[in-house]
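F.,

This is the one I mentioned.
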């Protein structure tokens, strides 16, 4: 028996990386089912093969209101309720400073990065709102050490993750007392996190950066780079109605001690 016995969740960006690990962990913790929002149609078959009828998978774009409505509707149609929304899909800007870009590229990449990292979280929250109020459930959003510090991305990514923090705090305020709203802020993690199309970096993956693991581990107090599954316990804790009943508007840092890193 696990901490999420009988719960139904929905995870965006659940086809890879942290989101995929959260899907697996929620099912291991006894969740009845998980709706999974993916971008890559190949992930539909992969997740269904791995988890069978414990998942409902929808391929689409998290910036689309219709796709957000579709995965919420499919999830609730299958299991009759929704207890937890995990907003997690994201893009990284590969630390691109604005002076490296034309002014038009700044405008385009702002729309794309904020569209995926901020707007999509608001859309998912809106799509799931009524079901979460009914179940007195919770929302959990994946932030980053970049929601609190400079240096983990370029200005657009860092600004988008800071905006995510504001979104969590205001949603927590608006949805209390019915729905708890919290976040998890991972630090560097070995995943295929991609860049924006508008920067021509959508085929680049963070995990392919040469020396990434060694360099980040060396500058992190705990001296390692996390694997996706190493963050998942925080999502379980925040989703658990028994174990987190009094926690809202809070973000758990899972970044190897970024606050205390040596300068
Ligand atoms: P990932 O690329 O494995 O996961 C991100 C997922 O989002 C992918 O499956 C991708 O297909 C999906 N996605 C991107 N754009 C989409 C769109 N328009 N529509 C639908 N889906 C879309 O990388 P990850 O590292 O697991 O990222 C998950 C979250 O973790 C992101 O919010 C990211 O900002 C955050 N994060 C990652 C790190 C890291 O070092 N990997 C550090 C801090 C925070």
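My design for it:
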């Amino acid at each position: 028996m696990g901490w999420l016995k009988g719960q139904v969740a929905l995870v965006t960006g659940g086809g890879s990386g942290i989101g995929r690990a959260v899907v697996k962990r929620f099912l291991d913790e006894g969740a009845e089912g998980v709706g999974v929002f993916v971008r890559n149609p190949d992930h539909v078959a992969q997740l269904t093969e791995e988890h069978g009828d414990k998942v409902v998978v929808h391929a689409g774009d998290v910036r689309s209101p219709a796709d957000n409505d579709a995965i919420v509707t499919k999830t609730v149609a299958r299991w009759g309720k929704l207890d937890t929304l995990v907003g997690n899909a994201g893009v990284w800007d590969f630390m691109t400073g604005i002076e490296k870009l034309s002014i038009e590229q700044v405008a385009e990449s702002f729309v794309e990065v904020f569209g995926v990292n901020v707007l999509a979280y608001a859309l998912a929250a809106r799509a799931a709102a009524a079901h979460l109020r009914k179940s007195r459930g919770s929302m959990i959003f994946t932030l980053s050490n970049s929601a609190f510090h400079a240096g983990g991305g370029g200005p657009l990514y860092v600004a988008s993750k800071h905006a995510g923090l504001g979104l969590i705090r205001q949603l927590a305020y608006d949805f209390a007392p019915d729905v708890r709203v919290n976040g998890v802020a991972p630090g560097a993690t070995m995943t295929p996190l991609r860049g924006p199309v508008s920067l021509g970096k959508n085929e680049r993956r963070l995990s392919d950066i040469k020396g990434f693991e060694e360099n980040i581990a060396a500058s992190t107090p705990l001296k390692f780079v996390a694997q996706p599954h190493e963050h998942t316990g925080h999502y379980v804790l925040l989703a658990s109605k028994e174990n987190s009943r009094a926690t809202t508007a809070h973000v758990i840092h899972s970044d190897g001690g970024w606050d205390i890193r040596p300068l």
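The chain has a mean pLDDT of 97.

Talk soon.
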